[in-house]
TrEMBL record:
GO BP terms, alphabetized: small GTPase-mediated signal transduction; vesicle-mediated transport
Superkingdom of origin organism: Eukaryota
Molecular function terms from GO: GDP-dissociation inhibitor activity
InterPro entries: FAD/NAD-bd_sf (IPR036188), GDP_dissociation_inhibitor (IPR018203), Mrs6 (IPR017230)
Family of this protein: Belongs to the Rab GDI family.
Protein name: Rab proteins geranylgeranyltransferase
Annotated source species: Exophiala aquamarina CBS 119918
Length: 505
């Protein structure tokens, strides 16, 4: 540990959530001296994939008030109903705190390819979209072909849906398109007024947009962009699907692989160490240390355990930086309730082959239509991850549930919806473990701030089912600040193949 204090670090990165990990990846071939620390003893930060024992420690951390993003976490373990319903060992599970899918038509996947880490990731198909309504499960048509072949749809609804799909698939540069309603109407109003769609079709279209808000509060232009991306992604990588996740934990696996690339590039990694304090060292520069002629004032950092280090630039998130002013607070956030449920049944009926010659998906998306007036209540989303994701043992699956509702009663509503859904699937009483928690959903846009000279903090990310492109914009902004005159847009996350990678191919 003494040698850490002997170095002058060009960059110290605190935390291994997706933004920090992608930043480490972007700097992995810069030749800079980088120290990457995390207060946890695992990778992933707010995007971590946890074992059962990790979850227990994480809940304790929240109880101690050391996390401003997550709160109110509780674990419940119902009595097993049968021998096949028993929990496996702790390390048999990789439970994602922030389960997100990645659309084929996104900037994320090309960045993972151009940065050369895609060869270390195994991507799995996200398959069918479903709606759970009044105790029955209906598959949502995701393409025009699906609409045409869906015998359950009345002809009037088919015509209305086809008109809507033609509208959203028009090229953005098509000046003949009538976009007058896009920015002024809600999804609910636009579907009823412009497209004359029945109320029963609002929830399925909302599911394709993955909007966490009720249809009455979802802006139509926002929904339009997201549904268009869904439609254009379908079939991009193969028949019948348009999104993927990384095997073994999704975001947490991407984070770990990105950090591994940083280590290969020479970065030093230190888990289980917190950045406790930051002080700009007056009058102390790299030039004073005989390192070089750089006149940049150094930042003195103290890690947990008392180790003192010096850096030119420090980057992290609110919870990873001491005394950060942009921590999520009750005044600028709304809560999303989430739960993670281990189910002692594989629920294989949810994962039909995407199409003839298509893959068997590993993830299904379900919108649970809540009671009350159509479009007025926040939808409940379920992500069902099969045993093929590597997140649970064979014969089980994981259900990730979420609802954007700050009311404390939403926690129970969420669990009731999961139980009713599992019963509809013919697997009553098969939930053998659950974690429920609230997420402070920031109302800020993606971004970052400079807390003090050369100390950058990534803003809290909005809760979303998608790993979306704005995270790359934030990372690129910090990368350009670090690189200075050496920053070129076409070099961000674009690397040549290493000789070792070529040899492996």
């Amino acid at each position: 540990m003494e040698t850490l204090g002997d170095e002058i670090w060009d960059v110290v990165i605190a935390g291994t959530s997706i933004p920090q990990s992608l930043l480490a990846l972007s700097l992995s071939r810069s030749g800079k001296k980088i120290l990457h620390v995390d207060r946890h003893d695992y990778y992933g930060g707010d995007d971590a994939g946890l074992s059962l024992q990790d979850v227990e420690r994480w809940v304790q951390e929240l109880d101690n008030g050391r996390n401003s993003l997550f709160k109110c976490a509780t674990v419940s373990t119902p009595a097993p109903q049968s021998d096949h319903g028993k929990l496996a060992s702790s390390r048999s599970y990789t439970l994602s705190l922030n389960p997100q899918i990645v659309y084929a038509q996104s900037a994320i996947l090309p960045a993972l390819v151009s940065s050369r880490i895609h060869t270390q990731l195994e991507f799995l198909a996200v398959g069918s979209w479903w709606i759970h309504r009044a105790g029955t499960l209906h598959k949502i048509p995701s393409t025009r072909e699906d609409v045409f072949n869906d015998e359950s749809l009345p002809m009037k609804d088919k015509r209305g849906l086809m008109k809507f799909l033609r509208y959203i698939l028009q090229e953005e540069e098509d000046q003949t398109a009538d976009t007058s309603v896009d920015s002024h109407f809600t999804l609910q109003t636009a579907l009823a007024a412009k497209f004359k769609l029945s109320e029963s079709l609002q929830a399925p279209l909302q599911a394709l947009a993955l909007s966490p808000l009720p249809a009455s509060l979802t802006r139509f232009d926002t929904a339009l962009i997201r549904i268009r991306r869904h439609m254009r992604s379908m079939g991009y990588f193969g028949p019948g699907f348009g999104a993927v996740i990384a095997k073994y934990g999704g975001n947490s696996e991407i984070s770990q692989v990105a950090c591994r690339a940083g280590a290969v590039g020479g970065s030093v990694y230190l888990l289980g160490h917190e950045l406790r304090s930051l002080t700009t060292a007056k009058g102390i520069t790299a030039a004073n240390t005989n390192e070089n002629a750089d006149q940049t004032p150094l930042i003195e950092c103290v890690l947990s355990g008392g180790t003192q280090i010096r850096a030119k630039i420090v980057v992290g998130s609110a919870d990873d930086l001491p005394q950060a002013e942009d921590k999520v607070s009750a005044g600028d956030c709304a809560s999303t309730w989430r739960s993670i449920n281990i189910v002692a049944d594989p629920l294989r009926q949810l994962f039909p082959q995407t199409a003839e010659n298509g893959p068997t998906p590993a993830v299904a998306i379900v919108l649970v239509e809540a009671g009350g007036p159509t479009g007025q209540r926040a939808p409940i989303y379920l992500q069902i991850h099969s045993e093929d994701t590597g997140e649970c043992p064979s014969g089980q699956c994981i259900i990730y549930a979420s609802v954007a509702d700050p009311d404390s009663s939403a926690r129970q509503s969420l669990q009731t919806s999961v139980s009713e859904f599992v019963a509809t699937c013919g697997a009553s009483d098969s939930i053998i473990w659950s974690l429920s928690y609230a997420v402070s959903d920031s109302q800020q846009d993606h971004g970052y701030s400079e807390l003090s000279p050369r100390v950058f903090s990534f803003a809290p990310r909005p809760c979303d089912t998608l790993l979306d492109d704005p995270v790359l914009v934030s990372v690129k902004g910090v990368w350009k600040s670090i690189q200075g005159a050496d920053a070129q847009d076409d070099l961000f996350l674009r690397f040549e193949e290493r000789e070792s990678e070529a040899d492996n191919d």
